[in-house]
Every structure is written in C-alpha cells, then in structure tokens.
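Weekly structure sync, notes
Attendees: PL, DS, HV (note-taker this week)

Item 1: Phosphoglycolate phosphatase
DS walked through the input record. Source organism listed as Hydrogenophaga electricum. Sequence as pasted into the shared doc:
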Amino acid sequence: MTPPLYDLILFDLDGTLVETAPEIADAVNDALAHLGRSPVTQRQVDDWIGHGTRELLIQALAHTGQQPPDAVRHDPGFADAEAVFARCYEQRCGTRSRLYPRVRETLQALRAAGVRLAVVTNKEARYTRPVLAAHGLADSFDQVISGDTLPVKKPDPMAVDDCLRRFGVGRERTLFVGDSSIDVATARNAGVAVWALPYGYNMGQPIESCDPDRVIPDIAALLA
Ligand SMILES: O=C(O)COP(=O)(O)O
Ligand SMILES: [Mg+2]
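Item 1 (cont.): predicted structure, written out as tokens:
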C-alpha cells in the first residue's frame, strides 16, 4: 500500500461495514408479532435504516398502526414496545448479518499502516457492540461512537469533531466513509472528505445523488 492519504478514517456501520438489514427486519417482525401487528417487508426496513434503530421502530409501528410517527413517538406505550424490540434484536444480532467483501483485511491493513479508525453510527450503543463483536470487530477501532453516545447524532458533526480532538488529526487528513445521505451531510457539516459505498441503505436513493467526493465499489478501494 502507498502511504495513506488520511490519518483518520471514520466508518459508518450499517450498510458500510456490515449488511445488517436482514436481521433487523427479522427483529422488527418478531417484535411486531409480539405486539399483534402484521409484518413489514425487507424493502420497507431497508428504507427506514439510517436514523437509528429507535426511529426505525417508530416507522414500523406508525406504518402498521396507521398512525403518524409523532403519535407513536409520544405514545406512553412506546417504551414497552421498545423493550420488546430490544429483546428481539438482541436475539437476532449476528444471525443474519455479514461483513461486506474485504472489510476485515482492509481494516487490518489500514491499522498496520498507522491509520486511526473509528465507527460513527446512528445505531444505539446497546446494538452496536454486539454487531461488531459478532463479526470479530470488537477491537478493530480506536473509537466507537453510537447514535446515543453523544447528545446529538449524525448528521450533526459532533462525533467527527470528537474524534478529531481525541486523535489530534486535522480535517484535511480525515475521511468519512458511509452509505447514505446522512453520512455525506455529516462529513460536509464537519468539513471532512467523504467517500461512499453504493451497496448500503440510502433510503431508496442512489448514493451518487448525494454527491460524495467519491463512490468506491468496496472498502478495499481505501488501500489503492
Ligand atoms: O441504525 C441506523 O439506522 C443506521 O446506522 P448507521 O448510521 O450505521 O448506518
Ligand atoms: Mg449506514
């Protein structure tokens, strides 16, 4: 590998490092069944990923209960539904997710070249840790920031700023790698470069329409 272009690379998780949608859909449908609701489709779940698992559950409940999302969010029964879902997701974690091609060896090579690596995901911490662990990535990152680690989540740049400060790296030496408009907006808000994968979850839109600095076919392009 030629000398790295970046000293710090921040990775999105769902749809960038790990294909998580199949088991998220299983967990959502397990929870809906417990709650006496009809199931949702894989395609719907794919399009609801991005704003964190809590928001995804709100969308699923709104859809199946024919209610506006805000009504679900403020329903006193929502906390119970969230607890049911948490149990379902914890059981499904690692059952039907998989690393995208060449993720493991690329992370290893970047680390060996001295690049600092972090995860910045909107997925809540209680699910982030098991997903990383299920794929042997628990110790692959210098920092992991989940959707509920800080008071705000992506596209707020706070998580990126936090990493820049922690590692003492400049914005021009930092790259964000993601799969969605939220990741592109996060990088733009933080003033760092952004490369995007075309295979993830971008709310049904092609990632090119979000105008990242580059679209790369897979993670191994970071080594080129
Ligand atoms: O959990 C989500 O909805 C999105 O997670 P991500 O930020 O890792 O894509
Ligand atoms: Mg993503």
